[in-house]
């Protein structure tokens, strides 16, 4: 199989780490950004023990200049980015009537504006080389809304609008653009939801449990594969049956 260069943002978090591991095991060169050096070193060390070499580059997805610099460093070290997974994300949950402007902006900047900041520096290279795979990691809550997440749901829904426009503009350049919408996966982000609230959420999942990060990584690997060239503009729900939109 063709070895590609992959950038997965937010690769020090639960789902991001699983995606990096999966793509690396497929033989791809993998890179991610970090803001917290200690967390990055721990991830690098854990990956090295599994025989996975990951390039970690400082970068804040909220900041366009930082993203441009990060992409240039990755390209210098590993070659042009051919697979991009916009995965970095945060929550600042609170009901809208209590939400502050910073809580709104941090979430929109990190989840949605980051898609511009990171994709803009890689898209010309993909168009030039006539091959690319872009995946947005959105959320079930961008599809169905969620009490306490007006900021997050708006940003996550916006990510799929980004996907379907980019998919149209870049199809003729061999670039596919898709969204994966995970449900509640057992990461730190979901475990931060109060226990009683989370238990009620899990009770609504037909499969009867939280998702595993590898179950999301598996879908990303599928969508970024060579054989997935006819899948573009899709939104793949992976949520244990929690939301069955069509
Ligand atoms: N539907 C209807 N009512 C709800 C509700 C719901 N889903 N959730 C809470 N409420 C009600 C409560 O029953 C309570 O009602 P009473 O006042 O009548 O008792 C009331 O809302 C509490 O409202 P407050 O404004 O006082 O809320 P709060 O400040 O105590 O906290 C919250 C609200 C922060 C939203 C909290 O409920 C919460 O954390 N909810 C979970 C949000 C969530 O699912 N986040 C997902 C994080 S993981 C993630 O985002 C990953 C991913 O992509 C899936």
TrEMBL record:
GO MF annotations in UniProt: acetoacetyl-CoA reductase activity
PROSITE patterns: ADH_SHORT
Cellular component per GO, a single term: cytoplasm
Matching InterPro entries: Acetoacetyl-CoA_reductase (IPR011283), KR_dom (IPR057326), NAD(P)-bd_dom_sf (IPR036291), Sc_DH/Rdtase_CS (IPR020904), SDR (IPR050259), SDR_fam (IPR002347)
GO annotation terms (biological process): monocarboxylic acid metabolic process; poly-hydroxybutyrate biosynthetic process
Positions of the Ketoreductase domain: 4-183
Taxonomy, superkingdom: Bacteria
E.C. code: 1.1.1.36
Pfam family, one: adh_short
UniProt keywords, alphabetically: Oxidoreductase
Family in the record: Belongs to the short-chain dehydrogenases/reductases (SDR) family.
Protein name, entry field: Acetoacetyl-CoA reductase
Organism (species): Dyella telluris
Organism lineage: Bacteria, Pseudomonadati, Pseudomonadota, Gammaproteobacteria, Lysobacterales
